[in-house]
Amino acid sequence: MKRTGAGGSFPTISADKDVRFMWRRIMIYIGFALTLYVAVIAFMYFGQRKLMYHPSSQLGPPASYNIAEVVPIKLPSTDGLTIVSWFRAAGTNKPIIVYFHGNAGHVGDRGGKVRAFVDAGYGLLLVGYRGFGGNPGQPTEQGLYDDAAAALNFLVRTGVSSDHWVLYGESLGSAVAVEMARRFADKPVAAVVLEAPFTSMADAAKSHYPFVPAGLLLKDKYDSFAKIGRINSPVLVVHGDQDKTVPIGLGQRLFEAAAEPKIAQWIKGAGHGDLYDFGVDGLIISYLKKIWSQKCQKFKAIMDC
User: Fold this and answer.
1) Is the domain of 188 the same as that of 215?
2) With a threshold of 0.85, does the pTM exceed it?
3) Residue 207: what pLDDT?
4) Is residue 41 domain-shared with residue 61, that is, in the same domain?
5) In a domain, 276, yes or no
Protein backbone atom coordinates (compact mmCIF):
# COMPACT_ATOMS: atom_id res chain seq x y z
CA MET A 1 0.00 0.00 0.00
CA LYS A 2 1.22 3.49 -0.82
CA ARG A 3 0.58 6.72 0.93
CA THR A 4 -0.18 9.62 -1.39
CA GLY A 5 -0.12 13.32 -0.92
CA ALA A 6 0.05 16.53 -2.84
CA GLY A 7 3.61 15.84 -3.87
CA GLY A 8 2.94 12.27 -5.03
CA SER A 9 3.66 8.89 -3.48
CA PHE A 10 6.02 8.04 -0.61
CA PRO A 11 8.00 4.84 0.21
CA THR A 12 6.07 2.32 2.19
CA ILE A 13 7.03 0.15 5.17
CA SER A 14 7.25 -2.74 2.70
CA ALA A 15 10.05 -1.02 0.79
CA ASP A 16 12.02 -0.49 4.02
CA LYS A 17 11.73 -4.20 4.74
CA ASP A 18 13.08 -4.99 1.27
CA VAL A 19 16.16 -2.82 1.91
CA ARG A 20 16.82 -4.44 5.27
CA PHE A 21 16.44 -7.89 3.72
CA MET A 22 18.89 -6.97 0.95
CA TRP A 23 21.48 -5.80 3.52
CA ARG A 24 21.04 -8.96 5.53
CA ARG A 25 21.75 -11.02 2.44
CA ILE A 26 24.85 -8.91 1.69
CA MET A 27 26.14 -9.39 5.23
CA ILE A 28 25.54 -13.14 4.99
CA TYR A 29 27.57 -13.26 1.76
CA ILE A 30 30.37 -11.21 3.33
CA GLY A 31 30.39 -13.43 6.40
CA PHE A 32 30.51 -16.54 4.23
CA ALA A 33 33.37 -15.11 2.17
CA LEU A 34 35.33 -14.16 5.30
CA THR A 35 34.80 -17.60 6.81
CA LEU A 36 35.99 -19.24 3.61
CA TYR A 37 39.03 -16.94 3.47
CA VAL A 38 39.97 -17.71 7.07
CA ALA A 39 39.55 -21.44 6.39
CA VAL A 40 41.85 -21.21 3.34
CA ILE A 41 44.44 -19.24 5.33
CA ALA A 42 44.27 -21.78 8.18
CA PHE A 43 44.68 -24.67 5.74
CA MET A 44 47.71 -23.02 4.13
CA TYR A 45 49.28 -22.14 7.49
CA PHE A 46 49.01 -25.60 8.99
CA GLY A 47 49.84 -27.34 5.72
CA GLN A 48 52.49 -24.93 4.47
CA ARG A 49 55.41 -27.33 4.71
CA LYS A 50 53.55 -29.93 2.66
CA LEU A 51 53.02 -27.21 0.06
CA MET A 52 56.67 -26.14 0.22
CA TYR A 53 58.52 -29.47 0.27
CA HIS A 54 57.93 -32.38 -2.12
CA PRO A 55 60.50 -35.05 -1.30
CA SER A 56 60.88 -38.43 -2.95
CA SER A 57 61.89 -41.31 -0.72
CA GLN A 58 62.87 -43.95 -3.27
CA LEU A 59 66.59 -43.37 -3.85
CA GLY A 60 68.58 -45.90 -5.85
CA PRO A 61 72.38 -46.30 -6.08
CA PRO A 62 74.40 -43.57 -7.84
CA ALA A 63 75.00 -45.74 -10.89
CA SER A 64 71.27 -45.81 -11.60
CA TYR A 65 71.46 -42.03 -12.09
CA ASN A 66 74.51 -42.18 -14.39
CA ILE A 67 76.95 -40.91 -11.73
CA ALA A 68 78.61 -44.11 -10.57
CA GLU A 69 81.69 -42.12 -9.57
CA VAL A 70 80.05 -40.72 -6.43
CA VAL A 71 79.68 -42.70 -3.22
CA PRO A 72 77.05 -42.39 -0.48
CA ILE A 73 78.36 -41.03 2.82
CA LYS A 74 76.58 -40.77 6.17
CA LEU A 75 76.90 -37.43 7.91
CA PRO A 76 75.74 -36.61 11.46
CA SER A 77 73.64 -33.47 11.60
CA THR A 78 73.83 -31.16 14.59
CA ASP A 79 70.46 -32.31 15.95
CA GLY A 80 71.31 -36.00 15.99
CA LEU A 81 70.03 -37.17 12.59
CA THR A 82 72.22 -39.12 10.20
CA ILE A 83 71.88 -37.78 6.66
CA VAL A 84 73.08 -39.55 3.51
CA SER A 85 74.78 -37.38 0.90
CA TRP A 86 76.76 -38.33 -2.21
CA PHE A 87 80.44 -37.48 -2.57
CA ARG A 88 83.23 -37.54 -5.10
CA ALA A 89 86.66 -36.05 -4.42
CA ALA A 90 87.96 -33.37 -6.77
CA GLY A 91 90.48 -34.07 -9.49
CA THR A 92 93.91 -32.47 -9.49
CA ASN A 93 93.78 -28.68 -9.17
CA LYS A 94 89.98 -28.60 -9.15
CA PRO A 95 87.49 -27.22 -6.62
CA ILE A 96 84.53 -29.18 -5.30
CA ILE A 97 80.94 -28.29 -6.17
CA VAL A 98 78.68 -28.50 -3.12
CA TYR A 99 75.23 -28.93 -4.62
CA PHE A 100 72.11 -27.91 -2.68
CA HIS A 101 69.08 -29.13 -4.63
CA GLY A 102 65.56 -27.73 -4.76
CA ASN A 103 62.36 -28.55 -2.90
CA ALA A 104 61.44 -31.74 -4.76
CA GLY A 105 62.86 -35.18 -5.46
CA HIS A 106 66.26 -36.16 -4.06
CA VAL A 107 69.97 -36.07 -4.87
CA GLY A 108 69.67 -38.80 -7.50
CA ASP A 109 67.34 -36.68 -9.60
CA ARG A 110 70.25 -34.28 -10.19
CA GLY A 111 72.46 -36.97 -11.75
CA GLY A 112 71.87 -35.71 -15.27
CA LYS A 113 72.63 -32.13 -14.31
CA VAL A 114 75.90 -32.81 -12.50
CA ARG A 115 77.23 -35.27 -15.08
CA ALA A 116 79.08 -32.49 -16.92
CA PHE A 117 80.79 -31.32 -13.72
CA VAL A 118 81.99 -34.86 -12.95
CA ASP A 119 83.29 -35.25 -16.51
CA ALA A 120 85.16 -31.96 -16.15
CA GLY A 121 86.99 -33.28 -13.08
CA TYR A 122 85.26 -31.24 -10.41
CA GLY A 123 84.66 -32.70 -7.01
CA LEU A 124 81.03 -33.14 -6.07
CA LEU A 125 79.10 -33.20 -2.83
CA LEU A 126 75.39 -33.70 -3.49
CA VAL A 127 73.92 -32.67 -0.16
CA GLY A 128 71.08 -34.82 1.13
CA TYR A 129 68.26 -33.27 3.14
CA ARG A 130 66.21 -34.68 5.99
CA GLY A 131 63.01 -36.24 4.72
CA PHE A 132 64.41 -36.58 1.18
CA GLY A 133 65.76 -39.76 -0.42
CA GLY A 134 64.96 -41.94 2.56
CA ASN A 135 66.72 -39.70 5.08
CA PRO A 136 65.04 -39.43 8.51
CA GLY A 137 63.26 -36.35 9.79
CA GLN A 138 61.04 -33.70 8.26
CA PRO A 139 62.32 -30.76 6.19
CA THR A 140 62.35 -27.28 7.70
CA GLU A 141 64.47 -24.23 7.02
CA GLN A 142 66.63 -24.76 10.10
CA GLY A 143 66.80 -28.48 9.39
CA LEU A 144 68.13 -27.93 5.87
CA TYR A 145 70.70 -25.48 7.21
CA ASP A 146 71.79 -28.09 9.76
CA ASP A 147 72.14 -30.71 7.02
CA ALA A 148 74.12 -28.31 4.84
CA ALA A 149 76.40 -27.41 7.74
CA ALA A 150 77.03 -31.10 8.39
CA ALA A 151 78.12 -31.52 4.77
CA LEU A 152 80.52 -28.58 4.97
CA ASN A 153 81.89 -29.82 8.29
CA PHE A 154 82.67 -33.10 6.52
CA LEU A 155 84.77 -31.21 3.97
CA VAL A 156 86.62 -29.37 6.72
CA ARG A 157 87.36 -32.66 8.50
CA THR A 158 88.72 -34.19 5.30
CA GLY A 159 91.04 -31.25 4.71
CA VAL A 160 89.14 -29.46 1.93
CA SER A 161 89.27 -25.77 2.84
CA SER A 162 86.45 -23.35 2.08
CA ASP A 163 88.44 -21.58 -0.65
CA HIS A 164 88.07 -24.81 -2.66
CA TRP A 165 84.27 -24.91 -2.37
CA VAL A 166 81.78 -23.82 -5.02
CA LEU A 167 78.39 -23.55 -3.34
CA TYR A 168 75.69 -24.34 -5.90
CA GLY A 169 72.07 -23.62 -5.03
CA GLU A 170 69.17 -24.78 -7.18
CA SER A 171 65.86 -22.98 -6.59
CA LEU A 172 65.07 -23.54 -2.90
CA GLY A 173 68.67 -24.68 -2.50
CA SER A 174 69.81 -21.21 -3.51
CA ALA A 175 68.70 -19.97 -0.10
CA VAL A 176 70.70 -22.75 1.57
CA ALA A 177 73.77 -21.83 -0.50
CA VAL A 178 73.46 -18.14 0.42
CA GLU A 179 73.12 -18.96 4.12
CA MET A 180 76.20 -21.20 4.05
CA ALA A 181 78.21 -18.59 2.13
CA ARG A 182 77.19 -16.00 4.73
CA ARG A 183 78.40 -18.24 7.55
CA PHE A 184 81.78 -18.56 5.84
CA ALA A 185 82.09 -14.87 4.95
CA ASP A 186 85.29 -14.64 7.01
CA LYS A 187 86.72 -17.64 5.10
CA PRO A 188 85.15 -17.03 1.69
CA VAL A 189 84.24 -19.89 -0.59
CA ALA A 190 85.60 -19.93 -4.14
CA ALA A 191 82.27 -19.05 -5.74
CA VAL A 192 78.50 -19.16 -5.32
CA VAL A 193 76.29 -20.30 -8.20
CA LEU A 194 72.56 -19.67 -7.90
CA GLU A 195 70.14 -21.32 -10.31
CA ALA A 196 66.65 -19.78 -10.41
CA PRO A 197 67.00 -18.09 -7.02
CA PHE A 198 64.48 -15.94 -5.15
CA THR A 199 64.68 -13.04 -2.71
CA SER A 200 62.67 -14.64 0.09
CA MET A 201 60.05 -17.33 0.49
CA ALA A 202 57.51 -14.61 1.31
CA ASP A 203 58.14 -12.95 -2.07
CA ALA A 204 58.00 -16.29 -3.88
CA ALA A 205 54.72 -17.18 -2.13
CA LYS A 206 53.18 -13.82 -3.03
CA SER A 207 53.81 -14.49 -6.70
CA HIS A 208 51.54 -17.55 -6.45
CA TYR A 209 49.16 -16.57 -3.64
CA PRO A 210 48.81 -12.77 -3.77
CA PHE A 211 45.74 -12.88 -1.50
CA VAL A 212 47.69 -14.48 1.38
CA PRO A 213 49.72 -12.44 3.94
CA ALA A 214 52.67 -14.78 3.42
CA GLY A 215 55.13 -12.67 5.37
CA LEU A 216 53.06 -13.11 8.52
CA LEU A 217 52.27 -16.80 8.08
CA LEU A 218 55.47 -18.41 6.88
CA LYS A 219 57.46 -20.55 9.27
CA ASP A 220 60.38 -21.01 6.86
CA LYS A 221 61.47 -17.55 5.67
CA TYR A 222 64.54 -18.29 3.49
CA ASP A 223 65.36 -14.59 3.35
CA SER A 224 68.30 -14.54 0.92
CA PHE A 225 67.75 -10.87 0.12
CA ALA A 226 68.79 -9.90 3.66
CA LYS A 227 71.94 -12.07 3.49
CA ILE A 228 73.43 -12.00 0.03
CA GLY A 229 75.11 -8.63 0.47
CA ARG A 230 77.12 -10.09 3.36
CA ILE A 231 78.90 -12.86 1.49
CA ASN A 232 82.42 -12.26 0.23
CA SER A 233 82.57 -14.56 -2.76
CA PRO A 234 82.00 -14.19 -6.51
CA VAL A 235 78.38 -14.82 -7.45
CA LEU A 236 76.86 -16.21 -10.65
CA VAL A 237 73.07 -16.09 -11.10
CA VAL A 238 71.35 -17.99 -13.92
CA HIS A 239 67.60 -17.67 -14.45
CA GLY A 240 65.16 -18.35 -17.25
CA ASP A 241 62.98 -15.48 -18.47
CA GLN A 242 60.00 -17.86 -18.82
CA ASP A 243 60.22 -19.22 -15.27
CA LYS A 244 56.66 -19.56 -13.91
CA THR A 245 57.71 -21.12 -10.60
CA VAL A 246 60.20 -18.48 -9.49
CA PRO A 247 59.62 -15.35 -11.59
CA ILE A 248 62.81 -13.92 -13.05
CA GLY A 249 62.13 -10.62 -11.31
CA LEU A 250 62.95 -12.25 -7.97
CA GLY A 251 66.27 -13.48 -9.31
CA GLN A 252 67.03 -10.04 -10.70
CA ARG A 253 66.30 -8.34 -7.40
CA LEU A 254 68.52 -10.80 -5.55
CA PHE A 255 71.31 -10.24 -8.07
CA GLU A 256 71.06 -6.48 -7.59
CA ALA A 257 71.47 -6.93 -3.82
CA ALA A 258 74.63 -9.05 -4.19
CA ALA A 259 78.04 -7.47 -3.79
CA GLU A 260 80.64 -7.48 -6.54
CA PRO A 261 82.09 -9.46 -8.19
CA LYS A 262 78.92 -10.86 -9.69
CA ILE A 263 77.63 -12.01 -13.06
CA ALA A 264 74.09 -12.78 -14.21
CA GLN A 265 72.89 -14.78 -17.19
CA TRP A 266 69.21 -14.34 -18.03
CA ILE A 267 68.38 -17.26 -20.30
CA LYS A 268 65.89 -16.38 -23.03
CA GLY A 269 63.13 -18.94 -23.47
CA ALA A 270 64.10 -21.05 -20.45
CA GLY A 271 61.68 -21.97 -17.69
CA HIS A 272 62.31 -23.24 -14.19
CA GLY A 273 63.45 -26.82 -14.68
CA ASP A 274 64.92 -26.77 -18.17
CA LEU A 275 67.88 -24.39 -17.91
CA TYR A 276 70.32 -27.17 -18.74
CA ASP A 277 68.52 -27.70 -22.04
CA PHE A 278 69.86 -24.24 -22.91
CA GLY A 279 73.51 -25.11 -22.26
CA VAL A 280 73.73 -23.70 -18.74
CA ASP A 281 76.10 -26.48 -17.63
CA GLY A 282 78.70 -25.34 -20.17
CA LEU A 283 78.18 -21.73 -19.15
CA ILE A 284 78.77 -22.59 -15.48
CA ILE A 285 81.89 -24.62 -16.25
CA SER A 286 83.32 -21.73 -18.28
CA TYR A 287 82.59 -19.37 -15.40
CA LEU A 288 84.25 -21.68 -12.85
CA LYS A 289 87.33 -22.10 -15.03
CA LYS A 290 87.71 -18.32 -15.18
CA ILE A 291 87.12 -17.83 -11.45
CA TRP A 292 89.51 -20.63 -10.50
CA SER A 293 92.21 -19.38 -12.86
CA GLN A 294 91.96 -15.86 -11.44
CA LYS A 295 92.06 -17.20 -7.90
CA CYS A 296 95.10 -19.35 -8.61
CA GLN A 297 96.95 -16.45 -10.18
CA LYS A 298 96.20 -14.25 -7.18
CA PHE A 299 97.07 -16.81 -4.52
CA LYS A 300 99.47 -19.14 -6.37
CA ALA A 301 101.99 -18.88 -3.55
CA ILE A 302 99.63 -20.48 -1.04
CA MET A 303 97.10 -22.43 -3.15
CA ASP A 304 97.38 -25.86 -4.66
CA CYS A 305 96.45 -25.02 -8.26
Assistant:
1) yes
2) yes
3) 87
4) no
5) yes
